[in-house]
Each structure stands twice: as structure tokens, then as C-alpha cells.
């Protein structure tokens, strides 16, 4: 499997595989966000998820994949620090605002800066048509956030704070997307990066969540919480693994933009499972997001 993936890097087959990996990552990332915003406290859910994927990744990191090259340790340290800040901001944003407001802003801020980062670091470039697609996609994403901000009534007292934190979170999405793309390209075996990343990345949030759970007056039962953590851990494996593999096989910028179709899936999940309001205007904005992604892909 590893040899085949490496053999298709930069090829037409690699481009096609990267496309479908990015779309799969989009759907799974929306599921992941809904799991964290669901009925449990976002900090507790994030801690349970991180604990689950740390435990699941450890045997693969230690006994299955090739050992990381010496230069990878500093890369893992950088990824660890970036993701810690990102997760703290994300959990904070979800405690302040509705999922369908916070999520589009986070995801809308990320791709623009990720494309810029891909240009600066990997010397990637977009055609004029692709930049038009980015503009259409971002118009849909931020239009969705503005619509939600105007018409939704839940959590309005903390809306401004939620939006500010969401923008900052989006900047860290761009940072980790670009940095992790560099990391997965820096090792001979991409699965070495993924296994070690998940093991290292899951070390801190469980302790923060445990401290929060211990001090809560009405702490949730651990069984359902850990069950959600296991499901979230598996989703994280597939979502993050898919987008990172896509950035190794093909352009980082295109993968980052295509992943942001997750806002369409997020709106559907928010409507069906979280009982948040969806109307024809939001459907039209979601179609705009999808159209932008198609333009980016077809314009390459």
C-alpha cells in the first residue's frame, strides 16, 4: 500500500485519489465537528477523542510503521504545539457559539491562508479560474455564517466572541494544514507521520478534560462519553489521514479548498441531528460552496 501511494505522487492517478480523499475528509471533518459540539461539553468530548486515538495509534507507531528519521522529531514537536493551540481555540469557540455559525467561519478562514501558505512554502500556484472558484467558495461559506448570525437566536449573547475565536481558529487550520503537509512529505513512509502524530497529539487534552470533568457539579457518565471518544477517534483517523495523504499526493492548496466543502455536510448534520434551522437561503449558500469547489478542481 505504501509503495503504491508513493508511486502515484504527482501523477494523474495521484490527483484523482487526492480529490476523493479531500472530499472524504470534508464529510468526516463535519461529522467530527458535530461530535465535539454535541450533547457533551466540547472540552470533555475533545479529551475523550484524543485519548481514544492516542491509545489506538500507539501500537502502530511503536511496533508497525518504520521508526521516524531523526529530523522528524522537531517536526513532530512543531505539529504538537500547533495542534494544541488549535484544539484549545476550537473547543473555546464551540462553548461560545452555535455549531452552524462557528464551523463555517473556521472553515472559511482556513483555505485562503492555506493556499497562500502553499504558495510560499511549496511554490504552488492557482490559475485565475481557480482563484475565482476560491472566491465563490468563500462567499458561500461566509454568507452562510452571516445568515446564521442574523437569523439564529441561540447563544446570541456570546456571538461576537464566538466569531472572533472562530476566525483565529481558522488561521490555525491554515497553519496546521500547511505545516502537516510539510511533515508528511518529510518522511519516507507517510504512515510513520500519521501514526506518530496521532500518538503524540493525543497526550495533552485528556488531562485537561479529566480536570474539567472532576470539577463539574453534574459531570456526565464516563461510558457514553468514552463511547463518543472512540467513534470520534476513528473518524479523526480517517478524516485527518485522508487530507494529509491528499496533500502528499497532490497540491496542498487544492486539497485545502476541497476539504472546505465540509461546511455543506456540516449544515446538513446541524439540521438533521442537532436540530438547527435550515432554509432555502442556506441551501443556496451551500450550493455556492459546492460550486466554488468544482470551479477550483476544474480550473486546475
UniProtKB/TrEMBL annotation:
Signal peptide: none annotated. GO terms for cellular component: membrane. Keywords: Membrane, Transmembrane, Transmembrane helix. InterPro entries: EamA_dom, EmrE-like. Residues 18-144, 163-296 form the EamA domain. The keyword Transmembrane applies. The chain crosses the membrane at residues 17-35, 47-65, 71-89, 101-122, 128-147, 159-179, 191-209, 230-249, 255-274. Gene3D superfamilies: 1.10.3730.20. This is EamA-like transporter family protein. It comes from Sulfitobacter mediterraneus. The lineage of its organism: Bacteria, Pseudomonadati, Pseudomonadota, Alphaproteobacteria, Rhodobacterales.
